[in-house]
Design brief:
Blueprint lengths: L2 E6 L10 H10 L2 E6 L4 H13 L4 E5 L11 H13 L4 E8 L7 H18 L3 E6 L2 H13 L4 E3 L6 H9 L3 E4 L11 H6 L5 E3 L21 H12 L3 H16 L3
Parallel strand pairs: 1-2, 2-3, 3-4, 4-5, 5-6, 6-7, 7-8
This protein binds zinc ion (ZN) (2 copies).
Length: 256
Amino acid sequence: MEFIDSHVHLADSAFDADRDAVIERAIASGASALVCIGESLDAADRSAELAARFPGVCYHTAGVHPHDAAHFDAARHLDGIRREVSRGAVAIGECGLDYHYDHSPRDRQRSAFGAQLALARELARPVVVHTREAEDDTRAMVVEAGRAGVVGVLHCYTGSIDLAEAAVEAGWYVSFSGIVTFKRWTDDGLLRAIPENRLLVESDAPYLAPVPHRGTRNEPSWVGLTATRVAAAREVAASRIAGVTASNARRLFRLA
Ligand SMILES: [Zn+2]
Ligand SMILES: [Zn+2]
């Protein structure tokens, strides 16, 4: 089953001991590309090194996570993201809004997110968005970005059908992680609500390992389990979901 992991934190120290083996295992399991998320300039830099070492397989992104928005410094961070884009970053992010943890004040989260959306518009790059318990503000900012021609993905999505539909309407994509394999997941209506050409799947590794690996360090080779669960909800073959989500990721991130 060919698939693309649209969101993986391979620069995370959880992979320091065996990063290359994790990538080789993912390829052996059918991964044709891994989008390595730079949720900080430092992570982006390390992800860029992976992209250079695994050309055509690893791609990288660059942004500032909402958890760190309190320390967002427009001059320094936008400059750093620009530099990463000029060395091949395929998207800006992850950025967004997280009102569940509120690690940064909400107004700072909105201004860091807004600045990254504006940069995405300027550089004509897609955006990787993290959103949690921030539906109204996410909807407003995504719809406005969509009107300005910015596309992106709501990653590891667990929000409402309403917000997902507003994002799809704005031209955006919705990505599901291993959370959909958990026993407490009951929202199959959401898994069916996303048009097939806007669906993505992701590991979000090292977090959120899908069942039956739940509780262990996650890795991209298990994304097929998530694709299989999404496929079951939609009553189609798992290979179909793996295939369409791979072509969707190629289109959104303009992968080779
Ligand atoms: Zn996230
Ligand atoms: Zn992430």
